[in-house]
Amino acid sequence: MTHDHDLVLRPTAAQTEAALNPPPGRIGGDLVLETLRGLGATTVFGLPGQHALGVFDALRRSDLRYVGLRVENNAGFAADAYGRITGEAAPLLLSAGPGALTALPALQEAAAACAPVLAIGAQVPVRGLGGGRHGYLHELRDQQASFRDIVKSVHQARTASQIPSAIAAAWESALTAPHGPVWVEIPADVLSAPTGLPVVTPPDATPHELPPRPELTAVAAHLLTHAERPAIVAGGGVVRSDASGKLRALAEKLDAPVVTTFGGKGAFPWEHPLSLQSWLEDRHTTDFLADADVLLVVGSGLGELSSNYHTFAPRGRVIQIEADLGKLESNHPALGIHADARLGLQALLETVGERRDPAGRERVREVLAKVGARLDAQDLTLERQVLEAVRAALPDDVPSFWDMTILAYWAWSAFDARRPNTMHSAQGAGGLGYAYPAALGAAVADPGRPVLAVSGDGGALYSIAELATARQHDLPVTWLIVDDGGYGILREYMTDTFGQATGTELTRPDYVALAESFGVPAVRTTPEALGADLAEALADPGPSVVVLPAALRMFAPTHPTGDRPATRSPRPTPGGR
Fold first, then answer.
1. I want to staple 341 with a disulfide (CB 3.0 to 4.6 A). Which of 283, 299, 427, 449 is the partner?
2. How confident is the model at residue 448 (pLDDT cuts 50, 70, 90)?
3. Domains, the chain, ranges and CATH?
């Protein structure tokens, strides 16, 4: 008997001839790029360095598009966004030591957001591996250890012949649910040494599917069909698995209200009669969810931001569909279903019964009315005006990327992302400087439409050098910088907690003049003119900057035990400035 896995494809005569007579002048770096090309990559991000010169030299002989940024961490953020927008693994080429380590915050964000980044880092020559004794420039005792706690998997190629297999295994890992960043390490002498190996043929690196167990979805379907007050929390996993249509079909079949997490923005229509929108920092919303007798959580771990800073306490039965085993039932006991969100929702769609609950839709209207009344009572006209201006200026299909800044905190709850996969922020790891380089990566992924980046002045200084990247590649990214004179979120937290702020005030450049010095057109605007200025900037091809001098405030959270506004101190910052 012959099994499929016993079959070996025999090379044709032409293939054998080509393998025996590879083109001259190739080195180990060519094997890296040939493997990436065979896997389907079209674009690579990165920054050259001494130990990575072999792979960068090979770029001269490759048809892969190279987008180089000015800081490795920013290159990582660009790759992160490229992976989010395309759903493909985004190659990131890095050197060793400082160059590699500088990208760690970006890879942490990619891990938290499940963005498929394939980081390929150089290493010291083979004889220096694992020692820290040879005195090579950039040498670390164990470079892999710096990445192992962050990335999804670590791979190493110590010889040229190992390069295709290591990269293919990493590619498969990055794109198997849950998506995430991976790390491949190749010594400098392997990358630079001449090779007579054949040109790499396309490897098979098909990601594994993660279907749900049918006995578990049967129980979940029974619970949902017979629930009196079902509700759904939709997280980023719904967006990443392109399952928003299945989510809507299931919600309408069950007549179940839906709230989207900050990472799941756009997964469910904002104005749908079953939509609770994204007001997860409001006690009215979390009380509604806690009162559900069956709560379906899809593609979310119900972490700090999705659980109203761990004050949310569900009283009914929780069903959780989650691809990441580390997040499954990690915060609340549940019927845990380890599965990709799309496959889990499809299984439920096929097995739940129809139910109708007009009272549930009325409860949704009541909750949203209470949320609106709370905001109306807090004198936040400026903040709401600014966010509404951004929404009005932004075409529905244009992606936006938000840094850790007060306007982004508003957008998490109040911004209507009218399409799935169009609103992204650094909420996963909470580091600064994400928005602008990420927006550049999104523009590389789809250069036919504009992209919006939103930063505070503090976060803008982290990535200001990338104005040169935007100009060099003529990327259609509009950068809105809200200039409040410092780290606004931290200023607010410290003032609320300690009575005064320390270390939050900044000397800043003239952002308009600075942008223009890079050849990027810029304008200083006002809250009243913001909408028109943003719309004009987004309509013009190429990069642009809009600067809004404004000191925005956060809305007060609801006190955990009632409806009384609380100070900001009980709410920890995820790293925002």
1. 299
2. very high
3. 21-192 (3.40.50.970), 214-370 (3.40.50.1220), 378-549 (3.40.50.970)
